[in-house]
Amino acid sequence: MKAHDAMYIGGEWRPASSTDTIPVVNPADEQVIGHVPAGTAEDVDAAVRAARAALPGWATTPPAERAARIAALRDALAARAEEIAATVTAELGAPPQFAAAVHAGLPIAVAGTYAELAATHPFEEEVGNSTVYAEPVGVVAAITPWNYPLHQIVAKVAPALAAGCTTVLKPAEDTPLTAQLFAEAVHEAGLPAGVFNLVTGLGPVAGQALAEHPDVDLVSFTGSTAVGRRIGALAGGAVKRVALELGGKSANVILPSADLPKAVAVGVANVMSNSGQTCSAWTRMLIPADRYEEAVALAVEAVAKYVPGERVGPLVNAKQRERVRGYIEKGVEEGARLVAGGPEAPRETGYYVSPTVFADVTPDMTIAQEEIFGPVVSLLKYEDEEEALALANGTVYGLAGAVWGDRDEAVAFARRMETGQVDINGGRFNPLAPFGGYKQSGVGRELGAHGLAEYLQTKSLQF
To answer: Could you tell me if 133 and 458 are in contact, meaning their C-beta atoms sit under 8 angstroms apart?
Structure first.
């Protein structure tokens, strides 16, 4: 049991303004494993004031020194890697091996990329008779989701620090214990007081207070499209910058020239990762009509390997479990063919959902259009490449995707997809490549130099 009663504000742990707390539940056994303070607008204001006070000093700190502090933060996180992985397993339900490799390993690597970028990025350049400076936007509100708790924190806070911004973090209420570990690492890394601040709390209270605070210059949010619209509206009233990474309904396009068994197996694995709770998951598998039934059989064979409680963890909470089960029931109701899984609970305890595969899915079905955020794969068939493209682009989202087949054909197809990131024949994740969406999947980019640019503004001096 981890009971926290303080916020990290101004370089120290301060008592929360309220005695109200938020319970943290292990979704695998439904037991309470900790509590964190339920932050108020008063806590948010104190954190923003601390960030504002620290901004002039941090913004003028030489980039090389900022890089050194980010490198120290990376090292502090690496020293806590085992504890981070165990914490994510406890509060999110991620299988231990996946938690160690992805939930702990990836953000440590991303922090390292920003230590290097802070030292090497051209914050000043000559353009004709002008000198152009890249300067920090200011105070950043980082509002992060529960599905990749540490990765999303690092993907926002590290580039903000590299740019010279100060930050206030409001983590998701389902997975706040990982954020507490991050704050401890920040303190150990020796960042100046107020450069990073942590306020835990509920979205409609602490999150909204942070998004609409007049001294916040940029709101970086990852989460649902509905909440992203709300944050965009709040920020728009103050002409405040936003970076929004929102929902997805990504297509996994298998061209006729593809290695079908490999494409199907990797596609199923992609959706099962993190129990399907990944915004960029390839949840729609598009298959040539003449190989459709072969692909269905391969998908059923592949999904059988993902046993709940072993290779697939629970969903984050009871509400999310019921939401996903509702989508499965909707798929059956609308006429999709259930070939694996279903809405029945696979275990008596824990928020588990059976890994599910639907065949005979048509583009007008709810499960083909809306983000499910669970271990559910929908298989659609197409007659030719133009129909495949129409299906791939036929949702309001455009976050990620995949194409399998002859390299040149796959690249040509991917260039026509309305989405921010496409993996070709199972291309490896690149933490330096920009990540973000088209259409209602968001505004702006994360990771690498493009992610750093979100936290910079330009000033030109003419001579």
So the answer is: yes
Residue 237: the pLDDT is: 87
Helix (H/G/I), strand (E/B), else coil: 353 = coil
pLDDT value at residue 244: 97
% residues pLDDT > 70 (the chain): 100
Residue listed under structure tokens 């306020």: 199
In 262-375 the beta strands, taken as DSSP E runs, fall at 284-288, 337-340, 356-359
Place of tokens 């998951």: 281
pLDDT of residue 409: 98
What's the helix, strand, coil split of the chain in %, to 5?
45, 20, 35
Rounded to whole angstroms, the Cα distance separating 123 from 420 reads: 26
Annotated catalytic residue 279? yes
Q: How far is the C-alpha of 285 from the C-alpha of 59, rounded, in Å?
A: 46
Kindly state the average pLDDT of the residues 302-329.
Answer: 97
What tokens were used for 405?
A: 């087949």
Sign of CA dihedral 171, 174, 178, 184: positive
Q: Which of 212, 245, 371, 446 is catalytic?
A: 245
113-130 pLDDT, tens digit each: 999 999 999 999 999 999
Starting at the earlier edge strand, list the strands of the sheet with 356-359: 337-340, 356-359, 376-382, 284-288, 251-254, 401-404, 423-424
Residues 193, 164 contacting (CB under 8 angstroms)? no
Of 142, 126, 143, 125, the closest CA to residue 134 belongs to 125
Reported pTM: 0.97
Distance CA 233, CA 239 (A): 10
Helices 81-92 & 149-163, crossing angle to 10 degrees?
Answer: 130
Residue 80 has pLDDT above 90, yes or no: yes
Active site residue 370: no
**387 strand-pairing partners:** none
Given the residues 91, 165, 173, 279, select the one marked as catalytic: 279
Q: Are 257 and 409 in contact (CB under 8 A)?
A: yes
**Euclidean distance between CA atoms 100 and 123, whole angstroms:** 35
Residue 236's pLDDT band (boundaries 50, 70, 90)?
confident
How many angstroms separate the first and last alpha carbons of the chain?
Answer: 62
Strands 376-382 and 356-359, sheet pairing: parallel
